[in-house]
Amino acid sequence: MSAYQPDEFEGVPTDAAADLAGVPDAFQRLWTPHRLVYIQHGQQPDEHSCPFCRAPGMSDEQSLIVARGTHAFVLLNLYPYNSGHLLVCPYRHVATYDEATPEEVAEIGELTQIAMRVVKQISKCDGFNIGMNQGRIAGAGIAEHLHQHIVPRWALDSNFFPIIAGTKALPRLLGEVRQEIAEAWPA
């Protein structure tokens, strides 16, 4: 199955692509222009309204926190790519990884490892996507507060439903997933 290809790109027919700059690769392109609005007009909250700064002051259930450390905490993503999509955040409001203290970096790493073990144990996932988008230009939804994504993946968990219908199918409710992960988290 091949990904959707637009008929034209910047006014250049795709059959003329061989004449354009660049080195051909094995990647197929999935064009998602509907995401441009999110990227260009994403709202960046200030420190006082930052959801990652506010979350630790709420109950774990209300904020979707599954575990709290000394320098960082783990919570479910409110807009997950897959069930069990977690975020690891320092308590301190810092924007990028290079601004984090050695203690914050160490705990983010430790919490990431524990999160992977717990999610693998309870969800039987086949793999993970782990990463940080540093800055708004890199696609960070909340660019001013460092956070690492941990996205569980299963064989055949992708489909075109999000593209065709603009909808992501999630088989479990956030509260259920939060409770299951929190209960399985080692003390």
Automatic annotation (TrEMBL):
The record's keywords, sorted A to Z, are: Nucleotide-binding, Nucleotidyltransferase, Transferase
Active site residues per record? 147
- Per UniProt, residues of the HIT domain are 51-160
Would the keyword Coiled coil be found if you checked this record's keyword annotation?
A: no
GO MF annotation terms = nucleotide binding; nucleotidyltransferase activity
Q: Name one Pfam family in it.
A: HIT
The entry's substrate-binding residues are: 77, 149
Query: Residue ranges for motif Histidine triad motif?
Result: 145-149
PROSITE patterns linked: HIT_2 (PS51084)
Q: Does the keyword Membrane apply?
A: no
UniProt cross-references to PANTHER family, sorted A to Z: AP-4-A PHOSPHORYLASE, HIT FAMILY HYDROLASE
Protein name per the record? ATP adenylyltransferase
Organism classification, top ranks? Bacteria, Bacillati, Actinomycetota, Actinomycetes, Micrococcales
